[in-house]
Automatic annotation (TrEMBL):
<dbReference type="InterPro" id="IPR011889">
    <property type="entry name" value="Liste_lipo_26"/>
</dbReference>
<keyword id="KW-0732">Signal</keyword>
<protein>
    <submittedName>
        <fullName>BspA family leucine-rich repeat surface protein</fullName>
    </submittedName>
</protein>
<keyword id="KW-0449">Lipoprotein</keyword>
<feature type="signal peptide">
    <location>
        <begin position="1"/>
        <end position="19"/>
    </location>
</feature>
<dbReference type="InterPro" id="IPR005046">
    <property type="entry name" value="DUF285"/>
</dbReference>
<dbReference type="Pfam" id="PF03382">
    <property type="entry name" value="DUF285"/>
</dbReference>
Length: 368
């Protein structure tokens, strides 16, 4: 009898272990089922709204945000890119779907690949108000600044942009970079939409030579995706618009941004410039500019040439600037002063070579 009781006890003791094992198996089955259900939900939305409907101007970040928005009703879903470094990447134009491009996601920590299918050329027409008739018209022209038919246009009602397909001013310098460029506008334009399309990454020469003191709408632009502002306000005789709230944290190139902007003197002291690499001629001949830019982060800047050349009014303290480079040709702008600088001569007393109007500017120069 004692033997039977012992056997029975052994069975009783082992039952909870068996129960836990069964529960784990059941939970795993449930999780697998839920994961499969989630994948099906994502695939359904993707195939209905994205596959064969994408274009080359949309970044992965834009696509992901739209996908998440469409799936907003499903609280069980947590979606992200498989590689967070891919946020700014875009699909290449692929009208016939020959490239088999895919978007790699994490759906509740599980990998999921989504086929892009056909990818159209990324562009958006510019819409404008006809100055004679008041009629809203549109065009796919990429540069309206030199065409006679647009020379008196004052109001833009839709901002145009296009995928430059690696063909821009950098090409002739042997550098390849792909931007989504905003269409260059007529010099007469004084009003634009207050919402800048999120696809745009470059504002190269958009307002070059603009004839107005103010351009209504640009003060509210969200510029967080902008990487290149080369020549944006160059040769604007009257422009002095408030762009103090612009987010320039992604801008790497301000080459010629205010070159020849003779009236510009707005407060841009709070601009976050951690990504800046090129300040070539940025404020060259900006005759009235005299704002505090001492807190700008210029530690990554590789080229300062002529940054303040001909900036007659500038007299600010730049002693906080961390200039960690070996070449400062014509900084801040005199003809010969800094052409031959090297690490041994990057010292403050070299400012005696600056033009008279800049000799009172304080700059701390060194290398780490």
């Amino acid at each position: 009898m004692k033997r039977k009781f012992s056997l029975l006890g052994g069975i009783l003791i082992s039952l909870p272990v068996i129960a836990v094992s069964c529960n784990n198996t059941q939970n795993q089955t449930n999780n697998n089922g839920k994961n499969k259900s989630n994948e099906i939900a994502v695939l359904k939305v993707w195939n209905e709204n994205f596959k064969d409907k994408l274009n080359s101007a949309q970044s992965y970040e834009i696509i992901l945000n739209k996908l998440i928005k469409l799936l907003n009703g499903n609280k069980d879903l947590k979606i992200s890119l498989a590689n967070q470094n891919d946020l700014k990447k875009r699909f290449s134009k692929d009208i016939e779907a020959k490239l088999t491009q895919k978007l790699a996601l994490k759906v509740n920590n599980n990998d999921l690949l989504l086929e892009a299918g056909k990818v159209a050329y990324g562009q958006q027409a510019t819409k404008y108000k006809d100055p004679k008739t008041g009629e809203i018209k549109e065009t796919l022209e990429k540069d309206l600044s030199k065409l006679k038919e647009f020379q008196n246009v004052k109001e833009i009602t839709q901002i145009g942009f296009y995928d430059d397909e690696w063909n821009n001013y950098l090409t002739k310098h042997g550098v390849k970079y792909n931007y989504i460029q905003m269409v260059k506008l007529p010099k007469s334009v004084n009003k634009v939409p207050s919402v800048l399309p999120e696809e745009i990454t470059a504002l190269i020469e958009v307002f070059r030579g603009n004839t107005n003191a103010k351009i209504e709408g640009i003060e509210a632009w969200n510029t967080k995706n902008i990487m290149n502002t080369k020549g944006l306000f160059s040769y604007t005789q009257l422009f002095d618009g408030n762009i103090s709230k612009w987010d320039v944290s992604s801008v790497t190139n301000m080459h010629d941004m205010f070159n020849g902007a003779k009236s510009f003197n707005q407060d841009i002291s709070k601009w976050q410039t951690k990504s800046l690499k090129y300040l070539y001629r940025t404020f060259s001949r900006a005759e009235k500019f005299n704002q505090d830019i001492s807190n700008w982060d210029v530690s990554n800047v590789a080229r300062f040439s002529r940054v303040l050349y001909g900036a007659k009014s500038f007299n600010q303290d730049l002693s906080k600037w961390d200039i960690n480079i070996t070449r400062l040709a014509k900084f801040p702008g005199d003809k010969t002063g800094y052409d031959d600088w090297n690490k041994k001569t990057l010292i403050e007393n070299e400012k005696s070579k600056w033009p008279l109007n800049l000799q009172n500017v304080k700059v701390s120069i060194g290398n780490k």
